[in-house]
Amino acid sequence: MFSRAYKTAVTVPPLLWVTVFLLVPYALLFCYSFWTVSPAQTIVHHWNLGNYRELLQVHVYFQTLLRSMWIAARVMLLALLLGYPLAYYVSFHAGARKDLLYQLVIIPLWVSYLVRAYAWKTILGSDGVLNTLLQYVHLTRHPVEFLLYSPFAVVLTLTHIYTPFAFLPIYASLEHIPRNLVEASHDLGASPLQTFWRVILPLSTPGVLAGATFAFVLSLGDFLAPLLLGGPSGIMISNIVVSLFGAAYNWPLGAAISLCMLLLVISLLFLSERLEKKWSFS
Amino acid sequence: MTSPTTQPAAKPQLLLSIRQVVKSFGKLAVLRAISLHVDEGEFLTVLGESGSGKTTLLRLIAGFERADSGEIWMAGERLDLLPPYRRRVNTVFQSYALFPHLSVRDNVAYGLRMQKKIAPADIDKRVENALAMVKMSALAASKPAKISGGQQQRVALARALVNRPRLLLLDEPLSALDANLRRQMQLELKSLQREVGISFVFVTHDQEEAMVMSDRIALLRNGNLEQVATPREIYSRPATSYTALLIGHTNLLRCHVERGVARCGGFQFRTSVPDGPAVFSVRPEHIRLASTTLSASGDSVHFRARIVAQSFHGATDLLQVECADGLKLSVSVPSHGALNGQRDFEFSAADAFAVRDSEERP
Amino acid sequence: MELLVSATTHNPRWLGIYALLVFAFLYLPILVLIVYSFNGGGVGGFPPHNFTFSWYRMLLGDGAMWESVLNSLAVALAAMAISLLLGIPAALALDRASFPGKAAFRRLVLLPLILPGIITGLSLLMLFVDMGMRLSLLTITLGHGTALISVATTDIFAGLQKLDRAQEEASLDLGANYWQTFWRVTLPNLRLPIIGAALLIFTLSMDEIAVSFFLIGRDNTLPLEIWSRLRRGMTPEINAISTVIFVFSLVAIVLWYRLRARAEGQPELGAEWVETAAAGS
After folding, report:
1. Which of A91, A259, B81, B336 has the CA that lies 20 to 30 A from B13?
2. What's the predicted TM-score (pTM) here?
3. According to the model, what pLDDT value does residue C164 have?
4. H helices within chain B, ranges in order?
């Protein structure tokens, strides 16, 4: 339906931009990961595998990566535990208020990440709202320390931030389930619980996968929450990268870690997409 | 149309009794005090146009809706107090509603697996039988997305029947099929019903379908039961002008009766209908081209009309004719070749059937 | 006949309570923030006392903060322009044209949405440094634009899918050429998705911090300004600005939602939402 000129005009500008500002930067990331930094704080364009060797040999990187994955996994599970029943409720039981409830879920999504992380910071600190509340009602006598500057705080905050993210694809897939399937299941003798297990849950699997992937991947790469709330025990892999690009000036090493992260994330996304397609039935 | 069973007529056993059921959605009244019964082993069709309430009635029996008032009883127990998964009623949905993530076999087995007391070996056997009955054994391992609409419909049927319900509900199951397949399925469904002996309640808007398949037809209009009778009765003795127009073609003559003689425009004939205004239904096939031998008498009506249009229907032609006073009629005659001009027609007074006038046309 | 579905036949009480609890979890921190922005006693401490507007008054007089707001506005508007100017053609290309590498192009465009911001930010940082560009609001703008093209693309793409092709074909049939058809038929039909996308991009850009973190020069955007204050310590003034941000976001989303509902006739938002929303942090 389209003339050559139209097609070119429409395809070339975005393609060009994306090449310059996405492909080239990733390529640079790739290149940097094989270079080194000289003691004089300049980048040495000497291709070698030194950075990767360091990643494999020095323990702290791998440890931090594992801790980050563990934090991300917990966020993912909690986000699903909170997001799925919420999505199920809004999709199947909200009746006339469905619209309103949906809006209420996505509003926090639009409120700035920083605002939400900051809110938790004011709540969890030793002088924070929660601690003073607990002391006020005489449940505790001293501030509870682990609330802030700990992996707990990071997990809590990230769960708060990413639960709506998990909600959205789950809700979308639940909405796609034709309601007459639920009626058919009841008609055939399945109770609501059995219907949930055998019909609704299997059919919502793609949404669950998508939500889980987002929550995991975005948590894994997060560096702001650990900086605000993580304390020394809550450091995640991205924080290491940030410091390598900052005070601990070693761009090549930082690039190497980033590249690993990039590859990890892309493989997870790819895997998730594959599984979603395989388990989707429409 | 079905003929009575060849056995000596046993008194039909009552299976389902719908008593004064009322249902509204918000301000919209969908069913207004419906009372209807279904006998064991009968094929009852609920016939109605869009908005007549027929699907709502079905959903009330299945349990997906709750009536505002009234009761539904089945085999001596209150049915409407039970949730759908405890009723011995199964539904074939209009859109089939097959579970996309389960194979055909697992779809059919679903209801049996919900009943705890059936051994897996028995389940398998019953499933295989059900699949054989609808001729879907070869595709038992396929997923619903991979089979055709007609095949899905068979699977939906098997899935419902395998549970041996006391009553099977069918919500316009043939509406998505093309004409030939539809005709074929009508006959198959009918013989299937005879074979398994279960009562079927079949919902459709297609009056021909209703006539072909049913033992009885319940005609719903605007939430009210217009008439409940066998197909032959509904056809030859429609209760109202609406029914007469809905089922088969008909001509409606608005007459005035005075002292046993009905007069409408240029016609007059004897009738036993009381004096006053009356509406008579005359089926097109009861109007014939006048033969020269018959003479006008109080029992037959002769008239002359101009043939305005003629359409070919295979064995018959349908003529649109216009009388001298402007009255337009449909006449069905054996296929003739082209007809035109002014012709003489006749019909006997006995074929003019008085109906109650409905304000509404279908 | 439209099946009128009445309420479901069962309604487990506990599910509703659970949903309520989740909502509480999502909103309580924000509410705490808002409440304490009026608290005379400062950021923490329970119970709040001393209702005051003084933090808001302080906010009004805070020059650096306002400067960062203006910076953010400028960046957001520019990013909006970039994203739309590139996102609309990208959506058209994905919807209609076929060319080698189309699938790869699609993935590439959508990638920044799903990747953690650090990767996008760092890789762009390397680009700018290698190009010899100084970090500034311009680099931030370029970063936002790049990251948010995907938002524009997904929204417009969804709008294109709902477009009735027959309208465009009718236009061509009646003698208009491709460009005229685009201006007179396609674009007007995309009005609502474009406005919606613009609103979303604007809001996301105003809030963006992860990518901006690496591309910041001398001038701060609002989130970065708040961030630098946070490093120095928590003040109720931050509560105040956070409340303001929340109110604006609230208005933005209600507007956005209304637009979508009007555009689609029903508020159900499909899978593109997922990707769109993932750009939030």
Report:
1. B81
2. 0.83
3. 77
4. 54-62, 104-114, 120-133, 149-161, 179-196, 207-213, 231-236, 241-246
